[in-house]
TrEMBL record:
GO terms for biological process: vesicle-mediated transport. Residues 1-45 are annotated as: Disordered. Residues 31-45 have a biased composition (Low complexity). InterPro entries: Sec1-like, Sec1-like_dom2, Sec1-like_sf. Transmembrane segments: none annotated. This is Sec1-like protein. Coiled coil: none annotated. It comes from the Eukaryota. Belongs to the STXBP/unc-18/SEC1 family.
Length: 763
């Protein structure tokens, strides 16, 4: 089951590779297509839009290898994690496509051994022999700004003797130029820096300047290795390559290069109240955060450019507003402005609703992502065992365990399976899998007969029995490997689910809305929440007594987030109640974690930090003019609508352009926290924000364009994706959904406060 696109650092098995025959299968996704082939608005449907997007994604990958002619023959190729994600989810062969085009080796640039990043000096006195690399050619494919990887690229080149170096970046040259121009005044006057050359009036493109850097580093590397190679015989290039998005399903695209971005909370220190734009100011962010904003803005601008969509920008939330303003800056000379196809890009902060991801949702894929762990930070793929597909084999001993991948690799059958699974809940997903396997068995085994149902066998056991039949034939296993690997994830999640705390926490989520429904005063609500936390402590001790995992800090924080997501805004805004709940949570953590903490002050600081961020998120949500949190929907958990669904429905009904509140209008502030913000092209921000009344009259409606793209900054759940697609169908509007990440309780918790910091307080 070894797949290079899944685990690039795992060995390729010589005698058993499911990927070995994939390249021989007939292409079932169609041939190249034009990026200008969107269906007309009159006869377009959400299904046709998504299918067209799939085709264009495949065409983009084909265009890169066929037209750009990346010189991979006998090259060492360095990629970053985001590029690996794009190849995994948006190409038929994943990273294997690099090997098929001649690459000698492929490495993750963020995981290279330490000695790959150290300069090797030749020791003449000891006649120290330095072994030359197996190849003289090196290729870098990077998703970020080159200036952020400059030191790493330099050290790799100085470490060996190369004759040829090609650098590709998913950030356009114009975006590189824009960033350098902005940062140049703050740079130290290093005579060799590209920024200093800008200060001296040398305004050649960034790529040209970086090529000169490559020339210097390659020459230095050859001097260190004493190859005697002349500079004029060296080849070095820098180019833009649009490896921008990962197509997780036909209804969801992700931007891997921005997987780590999350809307800023308690953002007062990043604001200048006198600035006419209002909201967060890019220049006040730390340098590493500025780089993230530059990156996502450039990628979204290039994304629209690749799809040739003339866009109107809308933002809900402070960070989304900042990103939208930056997209305008990155699109000053965009060719898409002349396109006849139009789109509304609506950016939404995840912090407006942190309650939905922490719920133990019944959606099949949400459940998988909440139970199984990711393979690494900022990766969308999961740790999935191959035990269900491969029997123990003697020739696999002493090798890295083979892992499966939850990805379709642009295989149409698997893509359709993931789309169908995304729409199922509970046992529906298992029933879907059972039917899928039965169809495969009947197709591949002519004499296959369904055995009589055994009432003692669970759905999972039946699925396992079907897989046992399939895996006896290696060719059949290879043929359906993508789908079977995804099915393995479902089985593993179901098995882990039996030993998880899922049902325990779900019971709290089901009971609390009912029990809180008739309580009106804040003090009684605090008492009820305290009682729920006491029950949590008792239940945790009971689980541990049964040698089951008890509850931990993450469970407590996620439960508190859920509780606040269903309470009235009047309670959420009560400082006294907030402090009482915070104190009770601190007490609960101490009771559950026992003596595992060595620093009470650090623990208190952690809880305070988390509650400050929770409070910011609640205040941001409650400020939205078209979101009213009431107890009318508290009869059961599933009736509580997500904020994303509420916003989308309001936009479809034309409620998203409600007038500004008087307090904001009087300030002349460009950012409006109460409603959707329209960010225009083609005029200066100062001129635009000086006339808010005029803007309100001329502001376009999101529904006036051919396509509405909802992009959630900070992660999206699959349940929300379904809600948005259903709303599109209900209102007969073409909808696309994108995000930076897949949102779960774990991602919300880790962003509220860094996990590593709280771990420092444990023994």
């Amino acid at each position: 089951m070894q797949r290079l696109n899944n685990r690039i650092d795992s060995p390729k098995l010589p005698s058993f590779t499911l990927n070995s025959l994939k390249g021989k299968r007939k292409n079932d996704m169609g041939s190249n297509s034009s990026f200008n082939s969107w269906p007309s608005s009159e006869n377009a449907s959400t299904t046709s839009i998504n299918q067209n997007f799939i085709t264009q994604t495949k065409a983009m990958i084909n265009n890169i290898w066929e037209n750009l002619s990346i010189p991979l023959e006998d090259a060492i190729v360095y990629l970053d994690t985001a590029i690996l994600q794009v190849l995994k989810y948006s190409s038929e062969e994943g990273v294997d496509i690099l090997f098929e085009n001649g690459a000698a080796n492929v490495k993750d640039i963020n995981k290279v051994p330490e000695n790959d990043n150290e300069v090797i000096n030749f020791d003449n006195s000891n006649s120290h022999y330095i072994k030359y690399p197996e190849t003289k050619k090196i290729v870098f494919i990077i998703s970020q700004y080159l200036c952020d990887y400059e030191t790493k690229i330099k050290n790799i080149l100085l470490n060996s003797a190369y004759q040829e170096c090609h650098v590709y970046t998913a950030i356009s040259e114009s975006s590189h130029n824009l960033r350098i121009q902005r940062e140049s005044p703050n740079q130290e006057r290093d005579l060799g820096s590209i920024a200093f050359q800008y200060l001296q009036g040398n305004d050649d493109g960034y790529f040209s300047k970086f090529q000169n850097k490559l020339k210097q580093w390659i020459n230095m590397g050859n001097e260190i290795q004493q190859t005697g190679l002349a500079v004029e015989h060296m080849i070095y290039t820098v180019e833009y390559i649009p490896l921008l998005w990962a197509l997780f399903s036909s209804e969801l695209f992700l931007i891997p290069s921005s997987a780590s971005i999350f809307p800023y909370m308690n953002s007062k220190k990043y604001k200048n109240i006198d600035h006419i734009e209002g909201g967060i100011q890019l220049s006040l962010l730390p340098p590493e955060e500025q780089s993230k904003i530059y990156c996502i803005s450039s990628c979204l601008s290039s994304f629209l450019e690749e799809l040739n969509l003339k866009d109107d920008l809308f933002a809900i939330g402070e960070t989304s507003h900042l990103i939208a303003r930056e997209i305008v800056s990155h699109s000053s000379s965009a060719a898409r402005k002349k396109s006849e196809r139009t789109a509304s890009l609506i950016l939404i902060d995840r912090t407006l609703d942190i309650g939905t991801p922490v719920k133990h949702l019944d959606n099949s894929i949400d459940k998988i992502y909440n139970i199984l762990s990711r393979i690494s930070t900022n990766s969308y793929d999961l740790n999935i065992t191959s035990d269900y597909l491969i029997d123990n084999r003697d020739d696999l001993d002493n090798l890295t365990p083979i892992k499966c991948s939850f990805s379709h690799q642009m295989n149409q059958n698997t893509l359709e399976f993931i789309d169908d699974l995304q729409k199922t809940k509970g046992k529906e997903g298992l029933i879907l899998i059972k039917k899928k396997l039965l169809n495969i068995l009947k197709r591949e085994i002519p004499d296959f007969e369904t055995s009589k149902s055994n009432n003692e066998m669970t759905l999972v056991d039946q699925i396992k029995s079907y897989i046992d039949i399939l895996k006896k034939n290696e060719m059949t296993l290879l043929k359906y490997s993508n789908t079977l690997e995804c099915i393995s994830a479902v089985i593993e999640a179901e098995e882990d689910y039996k030993c998880s705390k899922w049902e325990e926490l779900l019971s709290f989520e089901k009971i609390l809305p009912f029990s809180l429904e008739d309580i009106n005063d804040n003090f009684s609500i605090v008492q009820h929440i305290s009682e729920a936390l006491n029950n949590l402590v008792q239940r945790s001790k009971a689980l541990e007594a049964e040698e089951m995992p008890g509850f931990d800090i993450e469970d407590i924080i996620e439960l508190i987030i859920f509780i606040y997501s269903i309470l009235k805004s009047s309670f959420c805004e009560s400082e006294e109640s907030f402090e009482m709940i915070k104190h009770k949570v601190l007490q609960t953590i101490i009771e559950i974690e026992g003596n595992r903490f060595v620093d009470a002050f650090e623990l208190e600081r952690f809880v305070t930090s988390v509650f400050d961020n929770i409070q910011y998120c609640l205040q941001s949500k409650n400020m939205l003019s078209y979101y009213q949190n009431s107890f009318s929907n508290l009869h059961n958990q599933t009736s509580i609508d997500s904020v994303v669904k509420t916003i989308a429905t309001s936009i479809m009904n034309g409620e998203g352009n409600s007038s500004l509140s008087l307090s904001n209008a009087n300030k002349g502030n460009g950012y409006n926290p109460n409603s959707i913000n329209y960010i225009p092209y083609g005029q200066s921000l100062t001129h635009f924000f000086s006339g808010i009344g005029r803007r309100r009259q001329n502001q376009p409606l999101p529904t006036q364009n051919d396509i509405i793209i909802f992009f959630i900054v900070g992660g999206v759940t699959f349940n929300e994706v379904n809600e948005l697609m259903n709303i599109g169908q209900e209102y007969n509007v073409n909808v696309m959904v994108g995000s930076t990440d897949i949102a779960t309780g774990k991602t919300i918790y880790s962003n509220l406060y860094e996990q590593t910091n709280i771990n420092k307080t444990k023994k």
